[in-house]
Each structure stands twice: as C-alpha cells, then as structure tokens.
Amino acid sequence: MKKYNFYAGPSILSEYTIEKTAEAVKDFAGTGLSLLEVSHRSKEFVAVCDQARDLVKDLLHVPDTHEVVFLGGGASLQFCMAPYNFLGTKAAYLDSGTWASNAIKEAKCFGEALVVGSSKSENYSCLPKGYEVPSDVDFFYYCTNNTIFGTQLHEDLHVGVPTIADMSSDIFSRPIDFSDYILLFAGAQKNLAPAGVTLIIVRKDALGKLDRCIPTMLDYSTHVKKESMFNTPPVLPIFSALKTLEYYKSLGGVEAIQELNQQKAQLLYNEIDSNPFFKGTVTCKDDRSVMNVCFVMNDGKEALESEFNSFAASRGMVGIKGHRSVGGFRASIYNAMTLEGVQALVDCMKEFAQTH
Ligand SMILES: *Cc1c(COP(=O)(O)O)cnc(C)c1O
To answer: Is the terminal CB of the chain with fewer CB neighbours within 10 Å at N or C?
Structure first.
C-alpha cells in the first residue's frame, strides 16, 4: 500500500531528494567513495555546498546584503545564537506558540525580552493581534509558522526595527521580502533535508555591532567568513538540501510552490469545514497554516477519535496524530507533499463520514 507521510518533522522529502541521496551514499559524484565518508574539504563536496548556497539565493531572491550559511545544532540553537549576536539590551518577541516561547526563554539570558503580544491564553489558536513594537528595541522576533498549533503569518512584517524570524516549518513555501530581516533561520527537517543542518540567512552589516565576546562557534561572522566550512558541516544533510533545492527549482521556484501550497491547503480545509465529523482548531481562519493543518473530531463525535486514527492508518496515512498540546490530528503538508497525497487524505475523511 502506498504510504502518505504527514509527519510534522522530520518529515516528507521529495522522491528526487531521496533517490539522489541514496545514489550518492553508494557513489558520490563519481568519486568511487560514499557521501558518508568523503572529506568536507574535497573539491566535490565544496562544490555541493557552494551550489546549495547559490540556489538558496536564487530561489529566495536573497539580496547581496545577506549571506547564506549552513550550520549544525538545529533550529533550537538559533534561539540562543540570535540574541547572543544581536541582543544588546532589549528585544521584542511575539509569543505565538511553543517554539517562540522557547526562544523567549533563551533571550532572557542576554537581556530584556519584551513579549509584545501573546496568544497563550487562547492556547495559541490565533496569532497575537493588536500589539505594538517599541522603536528602541534591538530587534523584533517572531516565528512565521507555528508547527504545533497550525497558525501562520502569511507575510513578512515591517515594524520599523530589524527583524528576526524562525522559518523552520515554512521556508521555501512563499517568497520572502528581506528588507527588514537581519536574520532568518530554518531547521532543515521540515522543508529541506534530513535533520542535522540549519539554514541561516544573515544580514552581513548587522554583525559585529555588540560589545560582547561571542564564542567563535556561536558567532555568525565566523561562518559567514569561512563559507560554512569553519568546522565540519553536516555533509549528508547539505547534499540532500541541494537536491531539494534543485527539485524546488524544477517546480518553478517558490512562487509556483506557493500556489500549489494554497491549493493543497484549501482542499483540506474545505473538507474539514464541510465534513460534519471534523472541525479545525485554529479559530481565526486567516491565520490558518498552509503547512500544518490541525483538526479534531467535531462536537459529539469525540469518541470516534481513535477509530479515525486507525481508519486513516489502514488507508496509508502516516503521522496525522496531533501534538499532545492540541490533541486530535495534524496533517503536515509541507512543500514535498503532493496534491494527490492531500486528496488521498480528503478521500479517507469522506469515506470515514460515509461509513460511520
Ligand atoms: C521543529 C521546529 C523547531 C525546532 O527545530 P530543532 O531543529 O529540533 O531544534 C524550531 N522552530 C520551529 C518553527 C519548528 O517547527
């Protein structure tokens, strides 16, 4: 039976990424060596890293003011690296979910982390609204897609101060306006590659402004200067990232991917809204994520939850169980998920309703 991968992360990768990575594990770039055993300084791998960096710039139209860096340590390391490099006295944070609140905790080690808006009291079922960002902060920080709660900021915010965004779960899902960003980061395991690498896009002239000693490995300048080769980078995930980027290019770039994502999300949300067995958990419909679609059994149908879970599994749906802080179901329909995969889930929901 065909399996449809709706895991939230690590998550679905394109078939192209997986096939090309598997081939390179056997024989990398005709070297007769496995990708698992080549030097990161070999000319073949340096070329991979350079091409991946160039393709990120090409796909996202990254301006010359910014540089692309690949780092280990996961997105969570960025929760501390960002304030280490950019927080002098005070920064503004938007508390839109678990990942944002984890970032706020880390920022407090470096200065004042002012929470300008929070939707915690509504269990993050909407994005925070009606907040103001003071002009005297070092930066404004937010998470563009709340993987756990299924809410998403659909555009880049411009509040008149340098801005930092965690785009771990929606990078390459739409074009980005870089004008206010000093830093963007994304752990690879949602929309790019297997776990192990984090994509960083940093504004070069924003670095080196703080009067603080930053350990070499945690200083973005180190990795910008050494082109991600200061120490051994995650070789296999960077190779896979390049293959995913090639795949994105073949789809027509992020503009085409954005359109496809909207179609996929609309298909699934329409079913959730019209099928009497289910309801969405995000209460502000404009904030619904096109990447992580959260839903529960409708009122009066709660007892059928585990039955739907096994029904869906029997039809090849994998990883749709919701995060424990929301419950119910979460279908992660990242860039690599096809329209056909979403249609299969929708068909499964329709069939469940007809047979129950
Ligand atoms: C998954 C995720 C993280 C954490 O990533 P790690 O690489 O596990 O540290 C951070 N932010 C968002 C938005 C995520 O989805």
So the answer is: N
φ and ψ at residue 269, rounded to 5 degrees: -65, -35
195 forms bridges with which residues in the sheet?
A: none
Q: Which atom of ligand 1 is nearest to the CA of 77?
A: 9
- What are the tens digits of pLDDT across the range 73-107? 999 999 999 999 999 999 999 999 999 999 999 99
Which one is the CATH code of 16-251: 3.40.50.300, 3.40.640.10, 2.60.40.1180, 3.30.43.10? 3.40.640.10
Question: What is the location of CATH 3.40.640.10 in the chain?
Answer: 16-251
CA separation for the pair 298, 139 (Å, rounded): 41
How far away, in angstroms, is 277 Cα from ligand 1 center? Answer: 31
Is-contact 60 254, C-beta < 8 A?
A: yes
Q: Is the pTM of this model over 0.85?
A: yes
> Of all atoms in ligand 1, which is nearest to the CA of residue 99?
11
The pLDDT confidence band at residue 45, using thresholds 50, 70 and 90, is: very high
Q: How far is the CA of 190 from the centre of ligand 1 (A)?
A: 8
Q: Give yes or no for residue 9 CB within 6 A of ligand 1.
A: yes
